[in-house]
Amino acid sequence: MRRISCVIPAILLAVVVTLGTSTTVFAQETINIGDTVLSAKGNSPKTYTVNVSAGTILSLLLESGAFDAIVSIQDADGIELGRNDDGGGGTNALLVLMLPKDEMVSIIVDSWNGAGGDFTLSVTEAPTTPLVYDTMTEMWFENENVKVFTFEGQAGDVVNIFAVSDSATLD
What we know:
By secondary structure, this protein is mainly beta. It is 0% helix and 47% strand. A hairpin with a 5-residue loop joins strand 6 (69-74) and strand 7. The N and C termini lie far apart (34 Å).
């Protein structure tokens, strides 16, 4: 058996649900899952490190009224695992991804054209919704712009996932 995840975005909303407690961190280099960083950057990117476990589904929300936000994540070898611009609504960035192994990763806060200013970076473990074969799951996007679904499957399984909206589009 292996675990397979499906991430379905809802583009217009920009709030990520945080479960549990969180800590507000001011301009610190090493952060933890559950932390919210309130800081500012100059013309250069700002880097934070966080220790993650294999299979963690990490949600990075970078919000700024001062610049067009870009958030990316690199593994311990400096290889980019993901990057996002504008996925958090407006010019805010939202990146949700599953980390493949236990390691210290780097989160890079950046902007278009090297602009600087104040920002908020929220680092959370994304809540997941389990799916079961031959069972319809009905849900709504309320104040979330990403939902993460997981299910157990076996190699060779064929899986069809359909998303239906009450409106004309899924936007």
